[in-house]
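Incident log, entry 3
Record: Ribosomal protein L11 methyltransferase (309 residues)
Problem: checksum mismatch between cached and fresh output.
Input:
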Amino acid sequence: MKWKEISVVTEGICAEAVAGIFHQLGSGGVVIEDFQAARRYENQHSWNPGMFSPDFYDHDFVVIKAYFSDERQVLEDVERLLAKVEANFGVKCRVFLDEVKDEDWEESWKKYYHTFKVGDRIVIKPSWEEYEPQAGEIVVEIDPGMAFGTGIHASTRFCLRFLDKYLKGGEKVVDAGCGSGILSIAAVKLGAARVWAMDIDDVAVKVARENVKLNGLEDKIQVEEGDIIEKIAQLEVDMVLANITAEVINELLPEAARALKEGGWFFGSGIVDSRFPGVQQKLDECGFVIEEILTDVDWVGVAARKIRK
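Fresh output:
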């Protein structure tokens, strides 16, 4: 299968808005990369320095990449919606189009993605590598496919570190926007009793189910396609994982607060630092107290505990 890779180079302040456009259009995977990724476009034949201001490298630029099946005609919609982002944020968004084949994507991961450790216990191992675990290590096998969630990005690492620190065993967990399923799998391997994993992206759901099977956890992790905000209202849980965006986190929080037991945990990540004050305010409104904040460059992760209705 062939995929359209649409890359938008813009300032970090509107990264979530651009990612939201891609999600709205039904992208089969969205990735936000940092300034170094933005610099790589300088070497492309379609790069025109005149498209950017002379002080380009003094700004906080990012690349937001999205993948659509080849038959989808979305470029016109992307450009129309990006025009609104430019007007609202006072920025410029530049679009680059490429083609990716499934086999190219897979080979790319195998070339650059290797086993690595997060914290003291969690080892993330791609399915094609061998690894002999040391005493006390938890090994999560992942084949990311076309889904976001490898553990490399700071936002995923934040949630993995929160799970390692605060999950005690026996919890019922919701993984909102599960991507590759990496957080769901890690939660169960760290002792969670049950995980409901959801994503609006059918590609992510397919990949997550394959990874759950790869780790032999089909009996403890239920992966569904759909709107987690609607689903979570039917559940009573101990922990909610939300490695998504600040905008979606703010929509999710009122329902998460109703689903969580008193003393339950909400782990939010994928938050650009400029949007964190809004998340912080929403957490307070919904009866949470912040226990820990993690930061890495422009990204923020937050662990919050529910203390009141």
